[in-house]
Amino acid sequence: MSGTNLLAELIEALRCLPGVGARSAQRMAFHVLERDRNGGARLARALDQAVQRIGHCTRCRNFSESEVCALCANPSRDAQILCVVETPADLLAIEQATGFRGRYFVLMGRLSPLDGLGPDELGRDLLQRRLEEDEVREMVIATNPTVEGEATAHWLAGLARAAGLRATRLAHGVPLGGELEYVDRGTLAHAFGSRQVLE
Amino acid sequence: MSGTNLLAELIEALRCLPGVGARSAQRMAFHVLERDRNGGARLARALDQAVQRIGHCTRCRNFSESEVCALCANPSRDAQILCVVETPADLLAIEQATGFRGRYFVLMGRLSPLDGLGPDELGRDLLQRRLEEDEVREMVIATNPTVEGEATAHWLAGLARAAGLRATRLAHGVPLGGELEYVDRGTLAHAFGSRQVLE
Question: Which residues in chain A are contacts of B57 at CB distance < 8 A?
Fold first, then answer.
């Protein structure tokens, strides 16, 4: 590549981003250099700062720059309902889509013995302490409807039971706006089995 | 976003990359923070260095860290053939696909009056000096087969004529491996009109 090692290094470094292959990395590098050097400089600073300074909230494990994140520090959130999610992205999705005003706990993963992820890696100690100390009444289990998410939900339900809490799960079924013809069999079977009485 | 302004800033900054919308930016930010902080730090450094230190070669205008790029400085490249391209990406494509061993000139754009790109912005002075000083015999015009690329090719051909050089263009026609049925009409009409005698 005409001897510009910095360019080759930039293209290679861009490939750390998910979904960016050799070709998109090249396009991104050229775009930044040709049209948006300010944007590139800003991204360099933002990445550097984020990687160095974003840690985890000591209460909910979500990403946070401060010791306690803004959600945990917000006194207007209802401390009686604790929603447990796998990742910060799931938390964000729930915040944006629902009117949930309780608090969260972010596992930063799911039970996955093959990847070496057990209860300890998911913050069991911290979660148990919250269940004991806080005035939590209900645990909303919002893990993903995958095999590993179901196993994690099962484990969480056990923790809730041990702490004498009500445990609830997100409802499964046919997505709104979906067509039965295209819904996968597992979901359709579940939705059929869990059919509800119209009143 | 739970008060982590650094995270919000990172997600926003990632959107300077082409083809990255709000959702991919979020996915990229979470990926870097959760799984690849080293890659993120490396990308921050590479971006910072590239944006600051990559300029343009004083002979061919391609991106270069040094005053003269490696291609121009390479004495084994044939100085008698000069290939003129629109962008560094085009240069790279030709280097990777063909056995071309001559030299390049990168316009860093195409004639586009609406975008304020005229001959001056495309390095006319530098190009003319190269045509006069160097031992160039042939100019290979490798602009894109678009309306603006054709206008640029026309202008370049004039420069070549004025300097007494042979001007050549990349051949147009049906792409290898393409099916006639799916080739666009313009290309097909051109290929039909330029049909060649089999010998």
Answer: 2
Q: B87, B148, B143: which is closest to B117 by C-alpha?
A: B148
**Cα B14 to Cα A199: distance, rounded to the nearest angstrom:** 49
Q: How far is A86 from chain B (nearest CA, A)?
A: 12
Nearest to B41 among A7, A51, A91 (CB): A51
Does B156 fall in a domain? yes
Q: What is the CATH number of the domain that holds B156?
A: 3.40.1360.10
Determine the 3-state secondary structure of B99 from DSSP: coil
Residues of A in contact with B39 (CB under 8 A): 13, 16
Closest C-alpha to B82, from B73, B92, B72: B72
ipTM attached to this prediction: 0.82
CB pairs under 8 A between A and B: 199
| d(CA A1, nearest CA chain B) in Å | 7
Say whether B131 sits in a helix, a strand or coil: helix
Encode pLDDT of B79-114 as tens digits. Answer: 999 999 999 999 998 988 888 999 999 999 999 989
Question: How far apart (Å, rounded) are the C-alpha atoms in residues B26 and B20?
Answer: 10
Q: Give a yes or no: residue A132 inside a domain.
A: yes
Are A105 and A154 in the same domain?
A: yes
Directed axis angle between helix B22-35 and helix B37-53, to 10°?
A: 120
- Do B54 and A48 count as a contact with CB atoms less than 8 A apart? no
Domain of residue B118 covers 77-169
| Set of chain A residues whose Cβ sits within 8 Å of the Cβ of B30 | 87-89
Look at A194-198, B142-146, B149-153 and tell me which has the smallest mean pLDDT. Answer: A194-198
Indicate the number of domains in chain A: 2
CB contact under 8 A, B2 and A64: yes
Taking the CA of residue A103 and the nearest CA in chain B, the distance in Å comes to 11
Same domain, yes or no, for B165 and B88? yes
Ranking B28-32, B92-96, B187-191 by mean pLDDT, the lowest is B187-191
